[in-house]
Design a protein that fits this description.
Elements: E1 6-9, H1 20-33, E2 37-40, H2 50-59, E3 63-68, H3 71-76, H4 78-88, E4 92-95, H5 106-125, E5 129-133, E6 141-142, E7 145-146, H6 147-153, E8 161-163, H7 166-171, H8 176-182, E9 189-192, E10 194-198, E11 202-206, H9 215-224, E12 229-232, H10 241-255
Parallel strand pairs: 1-2, 1-12, 2-3, 3-4, 4-5, 5-8, 9-12
Antiparallel strand pairs: 6-7, 10-11
């Protein structure tokens, strides 16, 4: 992994990107930390035109490596996703969360998987890539396999790729290294998020290197599977999220890049 492949998702700083002025200031802070790429997420489409987002990122030397788009838009209006990604100048987006999907119900989950495949085909035909971002609920099992495995097996490798999240794979009971291997050839994006435990026996999201995940074999497995972007995410931070993002970046730079 090269330092140029390390990105962050703006969902981590979502409270600081809700106006054009705040977005501009935040992108400068991110660039000053050392990040060279961002995944756009956590800001409504009405905050700034896509072309302006792209321009601000370019001014700060930040590549837009991917986005998260609204779940319903991806499934029901993938053509709008294509239009937005082209304006942003990025190839990848990720389905963010299976809202209103009941994995315990066969009809609900089968329809959902079919919709993902169809939406992915629309993006593929436009030269773009739809990926799937998991949480812990994709590790609910039926027929002896977790939902995430069913999604991978029942969609075309051409139509749907993946954006595994290290924290949620671990929390769901999966093995992060093995999932990176399993998704070989369909793993352009990886969310880096560390796992720790609070007093009281509850999990906590940590800055990279400050929790309990062993990232070296995770990075190696992801690279072997073709990962292009390693994206830092921390849904909740103990203080200023820019401080947490700097801690993660500094650890990655000192310990994980080649």
């Amino acid at each position: 992994m090269k330092i140029e492949q390390v990105a962050l998702i703006t969902y981590t700083i979502r409270d600081f990107i809700q106006t054009p002025e705040d977005f501009r200031a935040s992108m400068k802070k991110i660039a000053d930390i050392g990040y060279k790429a961002v995944q756009i997420s956590g800001m409504g489409h009405d905050v700034m035109p896509a072309e302006e987002i792209a321009a601000v990122c370019a001014e700060n030397g930040l590549t837009i490596c991917a986005t998260h788009e609204p779940s319903d838009m991806i499934l029901d209006e993938p053509e709008k996703v294509v239009e937005r990604l082209k304006k942003l100048g990025t190839q990848y987006t990720a389905y963010p969360f299976p809202r209103d999907i009941d994995f315990t119900d066969a009809e609900s989950r089968n329809k959902f998987i079919q919709q993902l495949d169809k939406a992915g085909a629309v993006l593929r035909e436009a030269g773009l890539v739809l990926t799937y971002h998991n949480h812990a609920n994709e590790f609910y099992k039926w027929d002896g396999k977790p939902a995430l495995q069913h999604i991978a097996e029942q969609t075309s490798a051409e139509n749907l790729h993946f954006e595994p999240d290290t924290y949620w794979v671990q929390l769901g009971g999966g093995n992060v290294v093995e999932w990176c291997k399993m998704l070989k050839g369909r793993l352009p994006l990886l969310h880096l998020k560390d796992v720790g435990v609070r007093e009281g026996n509850t999990p906590i999201m940590h800055e990279i290197g400050y929790g309990n995940l062993d990232f070296k074999p995770i990075i190696a497995a992801a690279e072997a599977s073709g990962c292009e972007w390693f994206i830092v995410e921390q849904d909740s931070c103990p203080g200023n999220p820019f401080d947490s993002l700097k801690m993660s970046f500094d650890y990655i730079k000192a310990n994980l890049v080649s």
